[in-house]
Amino acid sequence: MLRSSSRERGPLWRDPAFRALLVQGILLLALVAFIVMIVANTLANLEARGITTGFGFLNERAGFSIPQTLIAYSGDSTYGRTFLVGLLNTLLVSAMGIVAATLIGFLVGIARLSPNWLLARLATAYVEIFRNIPLLVQILFWYFAVLQALPSPRESLSLMEVVFLNVRGLVLPDPQAQPGFAATPLALLVAIAATWWLVRFARRRQAATGQALPVFKLGALLLIGLPAAAFLVTGMPLDWSIPALKGFNFQGGITVIPELMALWLALSIYTASFIAEIVRSGIQSVPQGQVEAAKALSLPAGIILRKVVIPQAMRVIVPQLTSQHLNLIKNSSLATAIGYPDLVAVFSGTALNQTGQAIEIVAMTMAVYLLINLVVSALMNLYNARTLLKER
């Protein structure tokens, strides 16, 4: 009698894979049912209180002013326009903070490892002071104790009578583009593309021949020289609106409001103290033998740091640096404490109070911060993937 080569299948409920799938299905159904119950309960409560839902309020007139706008805005603008103004203000302070915090953090982190005793101690004091004071307190300090203590517009601190600093902010000359100015940004884009190609060509050339090109000098020449040449050839199509004191305030120019300055300073200095420690730990993670080998080749200290230490340390630095950049973006919402018109202040604050559309406005605000952080995280992860060691 032939015996079957395969074992007979037992009851389905004894199959571990089936049981795992069944449990996951039950949990998924329970989660969906819970969400449906929450949504239905919320809609019922809103209807009982006569509160309408939906995003139609975005087309309604806002009726309030905003002290800093990067796009055209007036009291007759809609709540949708208010959302865009707050979003752009949030992106502005976040981008400025990320750039400044990263530069300061790298400098302080490298300074902490300096053989100069005084420089290393000053860097250590910076880290220990600013990372142990709450960010909100630092924002209030820069705004109330420093910027609000500046003189009135009539007694402004001036630089060459074109830049003025007073209690109402920093007043700068305003560049006004004239016909033909479009050639300058176009030349800058061409210079960026040429510099990118130059970097890739230099890497391939060095890998093939061992000869290095002065990429930094050539790139700086392209990025500065080409736009400058286009600017001069087109007849310098740029005019300047110089601020002038008229009455009790300045007319003309660009005014950087003190709320933006205080928030930017606090975010940059606070986040930089954490980035400095990340940079220090990343540099110290590089094996000392790498540095000693570079010194044995008589390489200068600057080249050792740029070409040997930092590239290897970036593999440790980037993941933690990403977290600090994301924290800075989220911490920018503390701008409400000093009245900076970011997304939280003008949209989740004033617009919410006037419309009462709490669910829609809070959901939009949360979605925006989530989207911004996901984009930043994706870009940093892409860079991190390029710097990882590739196994052979």
UniProtKB/TrEMBL annotation:
All residue ranges annotated as the ABC transmembrane type-1 domain in the record: 87-380
One of the protein's GO biological processes: amino acid transport
Annotated compartments: Cell inner membrane; Cell membrane
KW Transport (keyword) present: yes
Swiss-Prot/TrEMBL keywords: Amino-acid transport, Cell membrane, Membrane, Transmembrane, Transmembrane helix, Transport
Chief place where the protein resides: membrane
Pfam families recorded: BPD_transp_1
Transmembrane annotation, as ranges: 21-40, 83-108, 129-150, 180-199, 220-240, 260-279, 334-352, 358-383
GO cellular component: ATP-binding cassette (ABC) transporter complex
Membrane disposition: Multi-pass membrane protein
Signal peptide (UniProt feature, chain positions): none
GO molecular function terms noted in the UniProt entry: transmembrane transporter activity
NCBIfam families cross-referenced by the UniProt entry: HEQRo_perm_3TM (TIGR01726)
PANTHER family: AMINO-ACID ABC TRANSPORTER PERMEASE PROTEIN YHDX-RELATED, MEMBRANE COMPONENT OF AMINO ACID ABC TRANSPORTER
Stated family: Belongs to the binding-protein-dependent transport system permease family. HisMQ subfamily.
Name of this chain's protein: Amino acid ABC transporter membrane protein 1, PAAT family
Species whose genome carries this gene: Halomonas shengliensis
